Amino acid sequence: MKKILFSFLFVFLLLVVTLFIKTASFKSKQISTAEGIRIDYPIDEAAVKHLSDAVKINTVSFDDTTIVNQLASDSFFAFLRTEYPSVFENLEDTIINKRSLLLKWKGKNESINPVIFYAHLDVVPIEESTKAKWKYAPFSGNVADGFIWGRGTLDDKGSLIAIFEALKKMQHNQFIPSRTIYFAFGSDEEIGGSNGAKVIAEYFRQQKTRFEFYLDEGGMVSRGLVPNMTRPVALIGTAEKGYITLDLTVNAKGGHSSHPDKETALDILVSAVKKVHDNPEERRAVATVNEFMNFVGPEMSFPLKTVFANRWLFEPLILNEYEKSAEGLALLRTTSALTIMNAGLKENVIPSLVNAKINFRILPDENSDQVQQRVVKIVDDDRVKITRGEVYEPSKQSSTTALGFNLLQKTCATIFPDAIVSPFLMLGSTDSKHFQDLTDNTYRFFPVRMDAELLETVHGINERIGVKDYMETIAFYESLFQSLE
Predict the structure, then answer these.
(1) Burial class of 30 by CB neighbour count within 10 A (0 to 12, 13 to 18, 19+)
(2) Which residues pair with 425 in a beta bridge?
(3) At what angle do helices 265-278 and 368-379 cross, to 10 degrees?
(4) Closest-CA residue to 250 (of 359, 378, 383, 373)
(5) CA dist., res. 110 & res. 408, Å (int)
(6) Which residues does the annotation mark as catalytic?
(7) Residues 121/100, Cβ–Cβ less than 8 Å
């Protein structure tokens, strides 16, 4: 009995020592571990008006690609040229495929790889049924209650106009960067970027241009979005989930609803969709999520720091916590969502041809072929034809030790001294997918503060950006441009 108790005590002490050592060696990855005080930048009324005016130009992209509002693009370009003449006087500008804009800011040393900053001109439509729910009209650009209101303020004209404001200030100071900087502004990110970003990327391929790093929209300076973190977290996307839509189609006997067969086409389809829904992938922490934990974990207080330092023991507890939210769950699984179902024309007629679309967002450790094969196996019914729709493979993971991430982290420490910085996995799709082969490091970060309420307004109702937050965004880009080596 004594031997058993001694063995138990020895194992317990060994565990305690292991936990202590790993916690002690779980060092911060922040430039400064001390929490700073938020900086209040002076309000630039002209910059506020410029974003307000940009919102008023309705640059909506529609899924029906035959609807092209060239007048809106022309108006937006005319607006930029009018309000930022010094930018166009000092940077080379090129119109790409009629509706996208490319600027080149020639650096002092053209022998080193350039960098590229990206934002998109277009916005999503407004649902007619929601218009009355907006506090201010969606394209009013109203400035009220400490915010600039309207579609695009957060996605993505806030970023675009902030870049121009920073460029204007740099031109006023006659600043010339060490390396060449490109600014690309695509026309159709909201519908995949085929006529904008994709064409811009091809332009660079033909020029044989390779970038030191690429920066697009993505993460933000989050408030209250990272579980158990009291400080804001600047989330820099270092990887992006993939995208595939699978079409499930069934063609079977139809007829009058008064004498149905044992299984109709719709019964078969619903059964297949339910099988997919009821058989989610196993949860797991991919490399990017583990790196995220390595950055946020050391900033947590005891005992959570010990938990994150010893994931070999406590990972199930951490994953359980993240699974409590839809966003957290999406970090841990390739997700599936039934988005469209087409069936039936009349209430007393059994449809013969039915279709459903299931959209998957793919974790970086697998690909679209594996997702499709898994769905075919789960459905296990030859009557259900499964075909591929739009596909974008998951991105590669970008480095947190390379120049690009280091510059972003240093700039965050300067502009957002109250925040910590962390890499994270982007759940949505950005235009960065078109540039993957042009650089080793792609980052996704819109330097603006957002909480859960503001995040809900992106593609939603009452989209808006805080005026003070917008001033920080401008300051961020200005500081980043100055820091480029």
Answers:
(1) buried
(2) 239
(3) 120
(4) 383
(5) 22
(6) 122, 189
(7) yes
CATH 3.30.70.360 boundaries in the chain: 242-392
Alpha carbon distance 230, 196 (integer Å): 39
- Taking the C-alpha atoms of residue 89 and residue 453, their distance in angstroms, rounded to an integer, is 40
* CA distance linking residue 270 with residue 279, whole number of Å: 14
Q: At how many degrees (to 10) do helices 311-322 and 287-296 cross?
A: 100
Contact (Cβ atoms closer than 8 angstroms) between residue 336 and residue 244: no
Question: What's the pLDDT tens digit per position in 115-163?
Answer: 999 999 999 999 999 999 999 999 999 999 999 999 999 999 999 999 9
| 8 Å CB contact between 187 and 73 | yes
What pLDDT is attached to residue 192? Answer: 93
Cis peptide before 177 (omega within 30 of 0): no
Average of per-residue pLDDT values in the chain? 94
Handedness of CA 9, 11, 16, 17 (dihedral sign): positive
What's the burial of 33, exposed, middle or buried (CB within 10 Å: 0-12/13-18/19+)?
A: exposed
CATH code linked to domain 45-221+396-483: 3.40.630.10
3-state secondary structure of 140: coil
Distance CA 97, CA 185 (A): 12
Which tokens in the block code for residue 188?
């159709």
Closest residue by Cα to residue 317 from 288, 345, 293: 293
Report, as an integer, the average pLDDT of 272-279. 98
CB 136 within 8 A of CB 142: yes
27's tokens? 């060092």
Helix (H) or strand (E) holding 296: helix 287-296
Is the domain spanning 242-392 CATH 3.30.70.360? The answer is yes
Cβ neighbours, 10 Å, residue 344: 14
Backbone angles phi, psi at 340, to 5 degrees: -145, 140
Where in the chain is CATH 3.40.630.10?
A: 45-221+396-483
DSSP secondary structure of 72-103: HHHHHHHHHHHH-HHHHHHSEEEEETTTEEEE
* pLDDT over 70 (residue 7): no
> Are 456 and 464 contacting, i.e. CB atoms less than 8 angstroms apart?
no
- Pairing between strand 335-342 and 353-362? antiparallel
